[in-house]
Amino acid sequence: MRDKTVEKLIKAEVRRQNETINLIASENYVSRDVLSALGSVFTNKYAEGYSRHRYYGGNKFVDELEDLAKTRALKLFHLSPKQWSVNVQAYSGSPANLAAYLALVPPGEKIMGMRLDMGGHLTHGHRVSFTGKLWHQVPYGVNKKTEKLDYGEISALAKKEKPFLIVTGYTAYSRRIDFKKFRAIAEACGAILMVDLSHIAGLVAGKAYPSPFPHADIVTMTTHKTLRGPRSALIFSRKQYSAAIDKAIFPGLQGGPHANQIGAVAVALFEAAKPQFPKYARQIVKNTKILASGLQKLGWRIVSGGTDSHLFLVDTWGRGIGGKEAGDKLESLGIIVNKNAIPYDTRSPVDPSGIRLGTAALTTRGMKEREMLRIAGLINAALLKNASAAFIQKEVVRLCRKFPIRV
Ligand code: DSN
To answer: Under which pathway is this protein filed (predicted)?
Structure first.
């Protein structure tokens, strides 16, 4: 690379990613093939419109690429093209969710979504997001005692508020979601059911988590979390909604699609369809359960008592350590997490009561149960300061070198 400044930063980031334990639940490491599609000449091309209906010439191969990504996406989730369509042009998760609402929900109508501080996402109707400004959020949460979804409470709220659309699928909820129950709740109040599958898309593709597709009207997902693709998003819709979704993406919301990104998504979908992907997805869940129970045995309270997915929340404030202090301390020793609110948190979002841990990235590196138990020990030692910083740092680097990332 001629630009030595950027080259130096890329090399430094490779080193950082290689030598830290990444427990950010929304991150992963893509394959070389995904990287190379992302860095391909498809980035040079403008392709406003859809296959065979573009506003620019020269799109023969972009058309083939976009069609391929769509076919692979439907196939991966076992969807009939007679019943479902997929749009592969959304730049990322937030525009995907916005497009879905723009297509389906009249402005000012009610969107029933999980509160951000209980595991929802900004785009599920939070007041600081466009989704809370253009639409009216009916917030729901988890049960105070169990810290799990309470379908009775959600159903009563839906009946009372009659939202136009209900969103399920979260960013910090570790338990299984009963999509069938959500379908029944949506039907009882005449709402559209949208599932934001961003976090667990790879688990569903790998059959390590139940599929929402038999029950949902719309499924949005980012492609860069457990699905292990580039940063992008997909919007699946039942046929009656598909034309409106396509129009909302283009020309409603976006300009030209990022063809290089669509190519990289196609590669990720190819990889997720391989026979070894379900093994990867199952290992993520195994690793997460072991990491959570390892920490539990060391005295840490895990929100809701455990996990069924790729992530969980640790109540660090239960032992007098704020989420910010915990995150900063761990980062200083090479363990990367994010501070996170826990349900019914009394502390501020900038220094909440917990941290969120996820294992998709470490599982990609090849780490298994043994390493998870070691990492639980290192987190415990770091937070309780019962081992020296130098020792923990050395252990982190030793572990990381055994499981290098591939770039
Ligand atoms: N920011 C992502 C996460 O970390 O969960 C969701 O968009």
So the answer is: Amino-acid biosynthesis; glycine biosynthesis; glycine from L-serine: step 1/1; One-carbon metabolism; tetrahydrofolate interconversion
